[in-house]
Structure formats: structure tokens, C-alpha cells
Automatic annotation (TrEMBL):
It comes from Cylicostephanus goldi. InterPro entries: a-kinase_dom, Alpha-type_PK, Kinase-like_dom_sf, TPR-like_helical_dom_sf. This is Alpha-type protein kinase domain-containing protein. Coiled coil: none annotated. SUPFAM superfamilies: HCP-like, Protein kinase-like (PK-like). The keyword ATP-binding applies. GO terms for biological process: myosin II filament disassembly; response to differentiation-inducing factor 1.
Length: 552
């Protein structure tokens, strides 16, 4: 039923071909043993075609509407979900699959953001996508060339000819808004059906009376007809200044992170005005309602084509916002690493062994997958710019040439290249430290510890960097207050050692920090107590001795 609502929403934008999804039902046979359940849906006559799947498959049959519909649901839902596995007869579809961000509902076929990544890796925007102002998903040059080669057959087909301008898609719910896209869609569908019912009733009464009204009539029935005309093209903000047949520019698309405080009142105003609509519809209220909807611009599927580097840098520092788009790019990087996007015919060559190595030990064989490392890092870098913590930490580890779990065989040489050219005046340590500091602000404990140690020693921060004890203590305090459990996986220093480091800096002073023996005494004492709790008696005695020296 949810997918059917998305089909109705797609049809409201006047695509070249309207679509529909067969509604199913479940019957419980209460008179039969064990009361079995049966799934029931209408039989569809004709040639059954599977246009795409939930794992990136695209049919060789060149149909634009099914692929555009899937892309439409992604942007219209604010990246919360996407309807895939489009199959059926003509434009009557059945048995679709919905991928959601959480990946916990709509059955086992819901692959979450991984399914979204698989779809966009094989999706090339067509004429319908462009007419809806849907944004192309960012792909690497190699991936885009592969898409062109894979879809070259469709170039011989004639382009879709539009008899009218298709309305631009706008998101029901902004990406960072906590509202449920399906709930907003249900309210919107209810509003349209209620409005259509009111108009039909008024038209019926008009026909019964047989009255004739001129163009300037402002009676209730005539105003209802005006409202109906507006509803047929609700998101055409302005038609003034354009001749018939003249190409109109697409609405400006807002890119990046949304402000919840600015978006939420608009959504509430729209929902409340829709639910509170009555049979007395006026021209002004109708226009106002649709203009409120039109102000909500879409959440595009692309990032690099519309964002400046400075804006991306600022967006990556938003610590409380999780980017769905960034998570999709991170999943694409993972898929590249495991060889998911390699052609099936080369599957046996993934772990090919040279003939000269057949006599060597099996343990020395190279078990790595020869994947597209450039494309994998391309998506990892976009995820980093979108503010995904794992991507930020991974790129920082690459910059420092530290071991990393994701894209293990990709080194810092990828970081030195941007858009196919080597970066000028690029300092690897300075770039890595900025990323580590961003990861620390996002709450990664190991990054906090790394930044604190860098401020303490003045190293690994780039050229001309100096130690800063106040900054080091600030980050050490955050690490200590992060958790009292020293058994957390990946923790580099126990809590008592961090307390001792802070005490030592207060004891020595300098590097911007005022010497304070009282604070040093208290910190050494606390470190000794924590060491005793950790069964480290010798270390505790050492800290007690340091505390006595500070008390003299």
C-alpha cells in the first residue's frame, strides 16, 4: 500500500506515462486447519517484465519511467526510502521492494542504505529524471564511463517528447528532519482525495441546477474549479514572463544540510492546512497552500556538482547530523573493496595465481581483490565531506599512514591527488590533523586522544605547529569524562595514565598553561586511586610520590 501511495505521488507531477501498483490483500482462512494465510492480488495479462531489482539489476529493456520512479521516491522522501524491484506489465507494477534508512521494515528484502547504493551505482538519469529536476548521483569517472558503455544501446531510441512541462520534484521531508516521510505522504494523499471529493460534489450540484456562469464569477462552485486547476499543477511557482513553448528554468535546488528549526514549521503548516480544508475553498488559500509546499526544495542525490569546497568543509563539522547520502557513499566504497562491482566474467580472476608462484607456499598467495581503488576512494572522500564519522577517521588514518580497516590497501597517495591533478601546497599532516580534530568533535574517543597528544607534544599538526597545554588538557578532560570503562575496545591509554599526563602538565607549566601545583597534586592522587582500582600497585605508588612532590 505504501508503494501505491508513492505511485500516486509520482503521477501528480504529470510524467509522460502514469503508473500504478497493484494492491494486494491477505486472507486468513479461519475455517481451515491451522488457519493459514494467503496472499491475493489481481492477475495481470500481458508480457511480464522485471525492470530493476533490489540489488542494482537493470533490465536491458530501455524503459525510462521505472528507473525515474525509483529515483523520484528517493529524493521525494528526503532520502528516507526508495522503491525498487519494479516489475509488472507495462506501467502496471506489482510486488515492489522498499529500502529504508534503518533497513528494519518492509521484509527481508530491505537492504537499507546498501540497497540504495546498489541502485545508484547502476542508475543513469534519463529525460524524465531531468524533467523532474532530480539530481544525478555522484559517480567517479570510471563508473560514469561504465554506465555510458552499458547504456549505449539506448541511445538509438528516440527521446521522450513531453507535451507539457513536468513539475519539479521537491522533498516531502528534509533529510535531517525527524518526521516520517510515509506519514506525510499519507496525509498528503488524504488531502488530495478529500479535495477532489469536494470538487466533484460541487460540480454535481452545478450540473443539477443547470446554471451558467461567466469567467468573472466568484461563486463557490467556480472557485472550486479554479482550485482543481491549481491542483493539476501544484508546484509550478510562476508562469509569468514565459511565452508558450518557451523553456522554463528548474527551481533552485537547495543542497546540503537542512535546518530543522526552519523546516519543521513549514511541514506543520502544510499538514494542518491540508487536514483542515473544508468544502469552501478559496483561490487565495489554495495558492498559499501550494506555495508552502513549493518552498520545500528537494534533497538532491548529488553533492559535488552543486556544493563549494568551503561549504563542504563546514558541513563536515556538523557533529549531530547524520548524512544519509554520506552513508550511501560509504557503502559504495565497501562494495568496491569486496569486489561487488567487478564483472561476473572476471570473478575467477579476482584471486588469480601466477604460474610462476604455483610451487610457492599457499600462505604467501595474495588474497586481495583487484578492485577500482580510485572509485572506492572517490566515494569514501564524499562520505568524509558529508560528515560520516567512519569516513573522516579513515581518511585521517590514510593521511598519517596509519593502519585502517576500510580500504586497507589504499594509501596516502590518493589523498595527494584531486580531480586527476596533484594538489599544490598540500601538507599531509596538517590535512590529517584537521580531520582528526573533526572526528574528535564528533565524539570519537581515539581521535580525542590523538588530538590531545598532538597538542601536548606539538607534533603531527603540520609545519610551524607549537605545543598547547591548555588545548591538550581540554581534550584529555573529554577523554577522561567519556567513559569510566577502560576495557572499551580500541582505547590506547588507561584512565590513570591520562590523569597523570594532565597532572604533569600542571606541574611543569608553560606552553600557554599557568603552573598549578594544587591541581597537579589532586590529579596525581586521583590517578593513583584509579591505578589501585585497576590492580596497578607499583604505578599507584609512583603517582603518590609525584603528588607528595607537588605538595612541598
Amino acid at each position: 500500500m505504501d508503494a501505491k501511495l508513492w505511485a500516486e505521488e509520482f503521477n501528480r507531477y504529470d510524467p509522460p506515462k502514469k503508473i500504478d501498483i497493484v494492491q494486494m490483500c491477505v486472507l486468513e482462512m479461519i475455517d481451515m486447519p491451522s488457519e493459514p494465510l494467503f496472499h491475493l492480488e489481481h492477475y495481470i495479462e500481458g508480457d511480464y517484465i522485471k525492470y530493476n531489482s533490489n540489488s542494482g539489476f537493470v533490465s536491458d529493456i530501455a524503459r525510462k519511467t521505472p528507473q525515474a520512479f525509483s529515483h523520484f521516491t528517493f529524493e521525494r522522501s528526503g532520502h528516507q526510502m526508495i522503491v525498487v524491484d519494479i516489475q509488472g506489465v507495462g506501467d502496471l507494477y506489482t510486488d515492489p521492494q522498499v529500502h529504508t534508512v534503518l533497513g528494519t521494515d518492509y521484509g527481508d528484502g530491505n537492504l537499507g542504505t546498501r540497497g540504495m547504493a546498489l541502485f545508484f551505482h547502476s542508475h543513469k538519469c534519463n529525460d524524465i529524471c531531468h524533467s523532474l529536476c532530480l539530481t544525478e548521483f555522484d559517480l567517479s569517472r570510471a563508473e560514469y564511463r561504465a554506465l555510458i558503455r552499458g547504456t549505449s544501446v539506448t541511445k538509438a531510441n528516440q527521446s521522450t517528447v513531453f507535451t507539457r512541462t513536468v513539475s519539479a520534484c521537491s522533498a516531502l521531508v528534509p533529510e535531517l528532519n525527524q518526521e516520517d516521510a510515509m506519514e506525510c505522504l499519507r496525509l498528503r494523499t488524504l488531502s488530495f482525495r478529500s479535495r477532489a471529493s469536494s470538487v466533484d460534489d460541487l460540480k454535481l450540484g452545478l450540473d443539477l441546477k443547470g446554471e451558467v456562469h461567466d469567467a468573472d464569477c466568484i461563486c463557490e462552485a467556480c472557485l472550486a474549479e479554479v482550485a482543481s486547476d491549481l491542483a493539476s499543477d501544484p508546484f509550478d511557482e510562476s508562469t509569468e514572463g514565459y511565452e508558450v513553448g518557451e523553456e522554463r528554468p528548474c527551481p533552485v535546488i537547495k543542497v546540503g544540510f537542512y535546518n530543522q528549526s526552519s523546516e519543521r514549521p513549514l511541514r506543520s503548516e502544510s499538514c494542518s492546512s491540508s487536514l483542515g480544508s473544508s468544502s469552501r475553498i478559496t483561490r487565495d488559500t489554495e495558492k498559499e497552500e501550494y506555495w508552502v509546499d513549493a518552498r520545500r526544495k528537494s534533497v538532491p542525490a548529488g553533492v559535488l556538482s552543486a556544493m563549494e569546497v568551503e561549504q563542504l568543509t563546514e558541513s563536515s563539522k556538523l557533529t549531530q547530523n547524520v548524512s544519509i547520502l554520506g552513508q550511501i557513499h560509504l557503502d559504495m566504497a565497501r562494495y568496491h573493496e569486496i569486489g561487488r562491482f567487478l564483472p561476473e566474467k572476471t570473478d575467477e580472476e579476482k584471486h588469480a595465481i601466477p604460474l610462476s608462484n604455483l610451487d610457492t607456499d599457499i600462505s604467501s598467495w595474495d588474497d586481495s581483490v583487484d578492485y577500482d581503488k580510485e572509485s572506492a576512494y572517490f566515494h569514501l572522500d564524499i562520505a568524509r565531506r558529508c560528515g560520516v564519522l567512519e569516513a573522516v577517521v579513515t581518511v585521517a588514518q590514510m593521511a598519517y599512514r596509519l593502519p585502517h580497516d576500510l580500504l586497507k590497501d589504499v594509501g596516502d597517495d590518493r589523498i595527494l591527488v584531486e580531480n586527476g591533478e596533484e594538489r599544490e601546497d598540500f601538507n599531509r599532516e596538517e590535512f590529517g590533523f584537521e580531520l582528526m580534530e573533526t572526528a574528535a568533535e564528533m565524539g570519537d574517543r581515539n581521535a580525542m586522544l590523538f588530538v590531545a597528544q598532538s597538542f601536548e607534544t606539538g607534533r603531527r599538526m603540520g609545519p610551524n605547529a607549537q605545543p598547547s597545554y591548555p588545548d591538550a588538557i581540554r581534550w584529555y578532560e573529554k577523554v577522561v569524562g567519556f567513559t569510566d570503562d577502560d576495557s572499551v575496545e580500541g582505547v590506547l591509554l588507561p584512565r590513570y595514565e591520562i590523569l597523570a599526563k594532565m597532572a604533569q602538565m600542571y606541574q611543569e607549566g608553560g606552553c600557554g598553561l599557568v603552573q598549578n601545583f594544587e591541581l597537579a597534586y589532586n590529579l596525581y592522587t586521583e590517578a593513583a586511586e584509579v591505578a589501585i582500582e585497576a590492580m596497578k600497585g607499583k604505578i599507584a605508588n609512583k603517582y603518590y610520590e609525584q603528588a607528595e612532590m607537588c605538595s612541598r
